[in-house]
Amino acid sequence: xxxxxxxxxxxxxxxxxxxxxxxxxxxxxxxxxxxxxxxxxxxxxxxxxxxxxxxxxxxxxxxxxxxxxxxxxxxxxxxxxxxxxxxxxxxxxxxxxxxxxxxxxxxxxxxxxxxxxxxxxxxxxxxxxxxxxxxxxxxxxxxxxxxxxxxxxxxxxxxxxxxxxxxxxxxxxxxxxxxxxxxxxxxxxxxxxxxxxxxxxxxxxxxxxxxxxxxxxxxxxxxxxxxxxxxxxxxxxxxxxxxxxxxxxxxxxxxxxxxxxxxxxxxxxxxxxxxxxxxxxxxxxxxxxxxxxxxxxxxxxxxxxxxxxxxxxxxxxxxxxxxxxxxxxxxxxxxxxxxxxxxxxxxxxxxxxxxxxxxxxx
Length: 362
Ligand SMILES: NC(=O)c1ccc[n+]([C@@H]2O[C@H](COP(=O)([O-])OP(=O)(O)OC[C@H]3O[C@@H](n4cnc5c(N)ncnc54)[C@H](O)[C@@H]3O)[C@@H](O)[C@H]2O)c1
Ligand SMILES: [Zn+2]
Prior knowledge:
The protein is α/β, with parallel strands linked by helices. The chain is built from 14 helices and eleven strands. A hairpin with a 2-residue loop joins strand 7 and strand 8 (147-151). The radius of gyration is 20 Å and the shape is globular. The relative contact order is 0.11. The mean pLDDT is 93.
């Protein structure tokens, strides 16, 4: 049977035959309980048929569909799911299976952790980003009051099944989005992985599995040390203080907002500029990061005002006291948490970053 990575909190199974184990788990643990599958319209079309094909016919599932899009990671959508579950007789022995990207996974995890004070949750990530990041680590949540992930819980899924072939139907933008979180893992923890990543032009589905596994390993090494994100886990926020501000701003102001991973890619560049100013990251390493990520995300056009973004940065829940909190890299492959910078330096790092995305190539 495929590879298993038993992280401290959940069993993560990878590869073509991971659904054999899913079938066993359903048969052994959830025979009598109701089984709900949460999808959006895209994962219902592209992923659900593959999952259902791998299960015996006599297993009944109820499918709940939510509309795709970050703007639907909301309290309104939660209420609709809570209602649907209650109307269908959800019980404490029920299981909710999220089949989707980070949006469906975060939402499904939050709903599962709150309905009837908590039912079991299984994650079947279908985007690269969800495979390498959001499906493990136990953070769930919704956006609220114009800010990212303001309401949420920590609950680890009972199991995570990673089937990399799901990524073949992603749009190029959604695929790229996942690459940004792989880059983040390499930049904070593995200089060799970064060298491989930055020299790669194409990521084929054949070698994707090893990139995903290494990312999950790096993420779980931080989560194990600090499950509730009080200290060491902040390392995973590299790129996210500016990234979340960009994402929240663009959801509010743009008809085609940035994907989470795209905002993170821009955040990685900006926070590398900051790392250079604050921690002395070598200029040559900074340029490697800038060149690699700006090439991959060159289709983006960034007409953002650094001054406007500062308001979102100040509203971030990562802040300790009144100051924006950053994780920064003193060199590629290592990270320092709880770093600070003056507002002018933060704005300057954003300006330098946006200058790389002034003339998008379509
Ligand atoms: N919980 C965590 O630790 C954590 C970590 C990182 C990101 N996140 C969250 O994850 C979210 C972003 O996740 P995402 O990038 O996966 O976005 P997403 O879930 O919105 O998916 C992106 C798009 O791809 C579509 N899609 C999904 N799977 C598909 C497939 N196999 N084929 C075709 N289309 C498919 C979706 O319908 C959607 O339109 C954000 O809300 C972010 O805050 C959470
Ligand atoms: Zn992220």
